[in-house]
Amino acid sequence: MKAEDIPLIRKIIRRNKRLELLFAVAGFLALLVGVLTFVALFAQMAVAGWERISPDFFTNFPSRRAGQAGILSAWVGSLLVMLVTAVSAVPLGVAAGIYLEEYAPKNLFTDVIEINVTNLAGVPSIVYGLLALGVFVYTFGFGQSILSAGLTLGLLILPVVIVATRESIRSIPLHIREAAYGLGATRWQVTRDHIVPYSLPGIMTGVIIGMSRAIGETAPIITIGALTFIAFLPESPIGPEFPWLNFEWLKSGFTVMPIQMFNWTSRPEEAFQQNAAAAGFILVLMTLAMNAVSIWIRYHVRKDIKW
């Protein structure tokens, strides 16, 4: 290096540092805009609907009188639909991601599947609703039920879970596989004892994202015929006799929180607008609680992992 090159190098370094600082500031401002927007909307819903939040609001059915209306059927329906969604999408999505990443041969057929899975993650939700209407409601005869809604939302988040599973598996260092194979482990033993446990935090992140999207979806649920006014609850999943399970609730009509909010916001009375704001506030809290539980599980799983 020549002595006359030193000032030029210093100038390039200073310029790169300034660009790095500008990029960091721009990223922070973008993050701040998103966070402040969410906080402002959340605070607005809380202020507008706080007066309506009471134990009766959780235990009353919807009513034509705004002061007596509640969200009992909506939040119970949301929980049951999310249960079906999780049971149908998470095991299948994780298994498909593991197969595509660890077992599937690298050929044209696999490439086509991978491209389609990636593209399906960006398909509008109304398309899944139309597909479910033709397949689950009419072809399979499930009707306008909790089962149809849960399977519809399961299809919606399935590509997200698959992509997140594959990306999480790809992030595992290669030396872990090599060490396991070097000790004589089979492919299944490597997948079961190393790949899945080490990738579980990333998989949980994908599940969180998918379930958070599903709990707020309205278009596919409306398409398959969710009720806007419902004054009954599905049968209990717990039966009175052995094996103490009852699956009749899967065939029941339902409504969910976004549908109930849509029904109230379409009414001109101010009291119903307050009900919608209170329901939106509770829906956000349900989503945050669900995410908090998943993050807590992910944290403890990650803490127990020893690389």
From TrEMBL:
It is a multi-pass membrane protein. It comes from the Bacteria. Keywords: Cell membrane, Membrane, Transmembrane, Transmembrane helix, Transport. Pfam families: BPD_transp_1 (PF00528). The keyword Cell membrane applies. The chain crosses the membrane at residues 21-50, 70-100, 120-140, 146-165, 214-233, 276-297. CDD domains: TM_PBP2. Gene3D superfamilies: MetI-like. Residues 75-294 form the ABC transmembrane type-1 domain. It is found in: Cell inner membrane; Cell membrane. SUPFAM superfamilies: MetI-like (SSF161098). PROSITE patterns: ABC_TM1. Belongs to the binding-protein-dependent transport system permease family. CysTW subfamily. This is Phosphate transport system permease protein PstA.
